[in-house]
Amino acid sequence: MNTYIVMQGHTYQQERELGIIWSPQQDQGGLVPHSWSRMKEIQKEDRVFHYVKGFIVAISVAAGPYQTVPKPTTVQYERNKNEAGNLVRVDYHELENPLQVKANLKEILPLLPIKYSAFQENGDGNSGYLYPCNEELSIKFLDLIRDLNIYQVDEEQLELSIDNVRRTEGNTLIPVMAETESELKTKMRIDHQKFRKTLMPLWRNQCAVCGIDLPELLRASHAKPWKDSTNDERLDPYNGVILCANHDALYDHGLIAFNGQGRLFISPLINPEDYEKYGLVPNTKIRLHQENKPYMKWHKKHIFNENYKEKES
Ligand SMILES: [Zn+2]
Question: How far does residue 244's CA lie from ligand 1's centre (Å)?
């Protein structure tokens, strides 16, 4: 199961009434934006978060893969009138209390991918139609939505007696959220286990930096993080390194990095007087595999924190 974010704006009500999401196939210049061609990736049971004017307002479940159809005549699209498009039938489950993205930006921002993010750094939605939503971001959305939409039992019972419509919405939303979360977590756990299993022998079952070899302390650390990796990259044993818990945390947060030769770089956020405490020796080299290089370089370029000034963030 994969998850997506659809940016609907003024077409939301009409698409919801039809139980669909829809994008044109190509723009007037004949180009196919990634956010339209992504419609073709959706499979039955995939989940979609619906974003409208600053808020996640619904979660839907795809009823099947896309179909090529003419533009639904009841939907007012500004461009590409009458052109064929990609349509996916989805079952909408509306949130009683929508989730405001900007109000939760601090928690959402670290989970946005560098490429193909649905949101900008200030929390504004991007202008495309369908974006990927990685598992970590999906689970965060579900957590935040749950806080807003699921009440204590007595409060909920009170609501139920007052408002039958709310009860219907609530009853379909809660099981969908629970099932989605459980599937996402299972997928991540299985993939992490596979990744670790293939990574361990490549690093001789020890931390590449300090040599600690107690399995309980060892982590399989992605170089190109989960949120930025394709499904294949997530499982590629060369996309990462075995590190002890401390060095894994430093690597994840971009406080250390390795270049294409495996040379250790330490962020200026760490005081050189403390290197020994952290078990870090500047300019040490770890023994990289050739296939690690592109991933290590990606991490150093995008994750490594080389600046003093970002210290407060
Ligand atoms: Zn270590």
Answer: 4
